[in-house]
Amino acid sequence: xxxxxxxSKFPDAPGKGAVWLLEQAAALGLDGVFFRSxxxxxxxxxxAELRDAVQAAQALGLRVQAGVGKVNPFANPESPAVRALGDxxxxxxxxxxxxxxxDAGVRExxxxxxxxxxxxxxxxxxxxxxxxxxxxxxxxxxxxxxGKVAPIARDVGAHxxxxxxxxxxxxxxxxxxxxxxxxxxxxxxxxANVLVRCEDPVxxxxxxxxxxxxxxxRDVALAFTDEGIGRFLLPVGQGVIDWPxxxxxxxxxxxxxxxxxxxxxxxxxSLHIDDERWxxxxxxxxxxxxxxxxxxxxxxxxxxxxxxxxxxxxxRAPVTPGEPLEFIRESARRLRELVASLPPSTEREARI
Length: 352
Known about the structure:
The protein has a single domain, classed as Divalent-metal-dependent TIM barrel enzymes (TIM Barrel), CATH 3.20.20.150. It is built from 14 helices and eleven strands. About 45% of the residues are buried. Strand 2, helix 2 and strand 3 form a beta-alpha-beta unit. The protein is of the alpha/beta class. The protein is globular. The two termini are about 20 Å apart.
């Protein structure tokens, strides 16, 4: 497994260009960059610019992964850049992004299913809880849209790797991948987001592992709040995740562990576990996983009370200068230790 970094949370990256970020990643001893959008490699999808960026990565010994537009017709209007690429046709914009990336040699392509509105608080910050269109209807539309995108990806040998984003569960993602086809779809496993849907990260990985082709890696702090349970981001090894157990299903596989860090905040998101609307919206949630998340929250709060972990006040405080880069450095250091320590037997287990 390689250790890379996600472009969207790399400090000072906006406006610096793809080659600058690749050079920064190489200087940190990382193995690749996960660009959230292929447009970060070339805003106009210019073949020469895309090729130059990929060749620069290769010269530095780095892997490149990139993203394309989201795949929820009810959320797509919030991605005007993709529609503009298709001269008003969102599907054509997606086709052009997928084809351009594949032509440049980038065939593992991130995508996601909806949005989280940080400018709002409460249940409706998450698209899963929209009242104008139900989540089951959104899921059905996502699957239909991916059915239209699948032949495009199949023609160029690409995979669209759906993220375990804040709004969707691994149960739902696995069903979508299996319905549309694992030859064109995969999963980008975000280790922190699964907890927003009250999934135990280890059980979630075991469910998703057969289809995981990319990752977003970060640890998590959990704390009881007025809204339920708050989820916050921490460097790998400093939160609640059992990393050896989580990584075991990926051992021996050529998957890049892409660190997604922090910029101005630790990205608090709420699990509204006491809200009946929230409870009804999780038909796949089992008591075992919900209780495990509560156990992890209590365990973290005990550490915070003992002074061995940041408490709720510290987690909500602004990120300090230098912290975003240190988040990446510390996560990379710990990930390399974890990967080196995985027992050989886990590779066989991952294939069972």
